[in-house]
Amino acid sequence: MIKSVICDLLGIERPLFQGGMAWIADARLAGGGAPARRHIPTAVHESNMIPGLTTKLLEGCVNCVMVGFEDCRRHYKHPEKVVVTGTPVRGDFFALTKQQAREKLGYTDDKPLVASFWGSLGASTMNARMLDFFRREQADGFPFHHIHAAGKSDWPHVSGELERLGLSSPLLDVRQYIYDMAVVMAAADLLRLWKGGGGGPPPIWSSAAPEPAPSAR
After folding, report:
1. Distance between CA atoms of 32 and 8, rounded to whole angstroms?
2. Is the pTM of this model over 0.85?
3. Of the N and C termini of the chain, which has fewer Cβ atoms inside 10 Å?
4. CA nearest to 87, candidates 5, 209, 169, 184
5. Is the Cβ–Cβ distance between 172 and 161 less than 8 Å?
6. Residue 127, Cβ neighbours under 10 Å: how many?
């Protein structure tokens, strides 16, 4: 319903919904679509380090291409249109202190928290590795809290393997999805993330989320 209303307001007859993201483009936009014909200043935003096809197709008919990283500029044919803005971050990511977030998660000890996730759909290869990682945690007596998101696609397999292998502990919290991400990231001492981009190096280990640039706020 909401998408239909937005399409009507922008005069978009053939909408393209990019992977469930919260924006809408028109199939004709790359050829000078509705906003361009109406002389409406138009911008697109690219959050990835390596731009996707959509923003590269649209750069010719928009006024501004907003990107999260300076290195993105070299991937566009019109670098003069590129503005580094960072990527907006929800305000609730800054609402809690680390201690408040730990209390919200019900942690009463001083064991560190590791959080890991590969994206909303998950990543089969990395989830298989994580099962090995969970076994090592168990062998070491679960020395830290661990919250892991397996993703929608892999959840049936991962949850079944957890039960089969007897991997259970109050310190190990494996979920389909982390719905309280702002709380988890605020409480985490270490984040294990998949860098994305199709191929490339293994997942990265990072300290808990750094303070974002002012533009990201």
Report:
1. 18
2. no
3. N
4. 209
5. no
6. 23
How far apart, in whole angstroms, are the C-alpha atoms of residue 15 and residue 4?
A: 9
| More confident call, 137 vs 203 | 137
Q: What is the largest CA-CA distance in the chain?
A: 64
Nearest to 187 by CA among 109, 96, 117, 116: 96
Q: What is the mean pLDDT of residues 176-185?
A: 94
DSSP labels, the chain:
-HHHHHHHHHT-SSEEE-TT-S-EEETTGGGT-HHHHTT---EEEE-SSS--HHHHHHGGG-SEEEES-GGGGGGSS-GGGEEE------GGGGSS-HHHHHHHTT--S---EEEEE--SS--HHHHHHHHHHHHHHHHTT--SEEEEE--TTTHHHHHHHHHHHT--BTTEEEES--TTHHHHHHH-SEEEE---SSS-S-PEEEES-PPPPGGG-
CA dist list (Å): 71 to 16, 83, 204? 27, 11, 19
Sheet holding 113-117, edge to edge: 172-175, 145-149, 113-117, 190-193, 204-207
Q: Which amino acid is at 124?
A: S
| Beta bridge partner(s), residue 82 | 65
Q: Please give the pLDDT value at position 113.
A: 97
When mean pLDDT is compared over 18-27, 70-79, 98-107, the highest value belongs to 98-107
Q: Which two tokens stand for residue 26?
A: 């028109």
* Ramachandran class of 134: left when φ > 0, alpha when ψ lies in -120 to 50, beta otherwise: alpha
